[in-house]
Amino acid sequence: MKRNYYALYIVLFIASICLNYKAYGQHNAAKSFPDRIILNLAEDASTSIAVTWRTDLNTKEGFCELQSITPTRINPTNTQSFKAKTTRVKYGYDGEPTIEANQHSFVFTDLEPGEKYLYRVGKENSWSEWLEFKLPSREKSKFSFIYFGDPQSNIKSEWSRVIRKAYSFSPNCSFMLYGGDIINRAGRDLEWEEWFMAGSYIYGMVPQVLTPGNHDYSGLKIDPHWKYQFTQPGNGPEEVKNTCYFSDYKNLKIISIDSATENELRDENGSALKSQKAWLDSLLTVNTKDWVIVTTHLPFYSSKETRDNPILRKHFQPILEKHGVDMVLTGHDHSYGRGTASDFSEEPSIVYVVSVSGPKLSKVSDKEWMQVKGSNIQLFQEISIEENRLHYKAFTADGELFDEFKIKKRANGKSEFIELHTKINSFQMME
Ligand SMILES: [Fe+2]
Known about the structure:
21% of the residues lie in helices and 32% in strands. The chain contains eight helices and 25 strands.
């Protein structure tokens, strides 16, 4: 009799583990209603914008409805309807349930610059809520965007407060830009679930602009989520089509360089390194935008004592300097460093920033290139551009101003750098 009780206990114990495992594994599963709705900037941000979302496999097709913004009740009969591209995907990660879903993607084109729109995604009986976005006008009037260094770890519990603080500081920001290592373990859908939970409806209203880091790669392969859950411009070289690209936003050209590909570009003969160099040089040769900002994961100058990326500098810095790129925003080193330096020029002008928004933090080094630095601190940046003036502010996760400067472009094409961080009373390096 006693033995039977033991057997029953063991069966119940195993059953409870299985049930719990299933519940744990499936909370990131897709449903019939759209989730993970995200906007991405298109090549010409003033007339186009991309949207991507996810459903379960029973929802076999997806539609977008679009109309001009209204102050009154939304009348669905006023909408234009578009059918999205639907791709069946399977995301697997060792030891965790495989997630199967349909990813739906659509690019709205031929829109009116400067206009506000309402849109929703899904299909009959399973629509998302109506979300709004605003396109930039063609004028050089003021706009701001947010920059995040690596979110990477503890995204739900500790990064979520950073994106929410940034959005509360700059609710009308034009887009949010990332420097890679969005999650920690490439391919792990549970971590993407945390990232989408952290930003929630913000992603459906503010376009996200993402470059990958080494943690977004597994060996030489990028996490497949990058191809299917984002719809980035795809105007870069074939080898890195979804991760090296550009967008034009008013008088700014934003460029993503994929420095995580080919094992952090360690092979100087790698095709992705060569093609990105050629693409970047030709793109900047015909550039007509006043400002050029590059985002890439690896720092040109490292803020960490034990790290350096001379191959990146050797191949890309001469191109950036030749074409007068203004700023390079990076991550990877989990501390803060900001400075102007060059391996090639006597008069360096590019501002290099290393920053981190997530809670994986480390100590900054004493390297000379940094004019401002910080250890053990989570940050976000608000960068504003108005005609020939750029205003950079770095804020801590609790909303304190940590670093600040301005750049003014003179009529002769030269830039004037205006240091402002010395005026920040609360400034101190965290140890
Ligand atoms: Fe990294």
